Amino acid sequence: MMNDTTIPATEWAKFLDEEYLSEYISQGGSAVKFAVCKTKEAVDSLTNSLNEFGARHHYATVVLDAKDFRAHMPQDVYFQIAAQIDWRGLVRERILQLAHDALLKIDGIATAGNDDLYGSLAKKNRITRQEVVQELREQISAKIFRRRCMTRDFRVAMAALCKAENATDSESYNAGPVLDWLMGQEKRVSAIRPFSIYGTIDRTTARGMLESTLHWLLDCGQAGLIVVLDNRRVLTTPNPKDGFKYYTRMMVFDHYEVLRELIDDIDRLPGLLLIVTTCAQFVQANMRSYREYQALSMRIMNDVRDEQKQNWAAALVNVS
Known about the structure:
By secondary structure, the chain is an alpha/beta fold.
């Protein structure tokens, strides 16, 4: 176990900004880091700093807390991420990119809001709405539906979201079920079948959805995705007075498995910086310690050469 030597949260966040966010992650790199936080204030300080740096570099940033969802279920991790992504904003940004590729004028057209984007493109270019639809249909087919690095269901979903933005005052937005499917609010296949989506998001497909989401974020002009996952609740000793859901021993091991899979798949997750804020129990040799799960332990400790000295670039650091 490491001694009391720690790295200040704000200084470590600045290090991550300079060494990872400014270039490495935005160029398609990826990393998983574990921060053993002495206090809640350290967690909050680290999270706030990463939010600030992420916004500065145009990253999408999501914050997850294991007390609010089932952190041992891969699909729930994905749903929590998806719930914090501005899907319609990204879709509108991608539509304007595709319109530009089709040699349409896009200057002055905002991506924010839910106004008539197709109508604005038609007015800007002095052509009919149908001509805009025709130009974009070809681009959507070539650059979204045939984008093989994303899963089929995800590609179909993004294409459907792009087409749904062609809504006017007389025709309401109709892709709500697709958004609900992405965020885990709609699990009935029958609700999304009209969009030619036939699969569910479960523990076997969640990783593919996360990989697809990362490619989509990069395609839409984002620098990448920062995920801050607070897993302290997973390891905390149960106390009924707290009123929170606690994790059984098997759930803890399932959570470790989720983390191990993310580490093993990191090279296939471009533009991802995952920071797991955790507690001292995570590195202590007890029943709920990750040391009992050697598959995860070896992956984290590989670059921790000296447990008595903090290595800022290591997979595991002590933060105060």
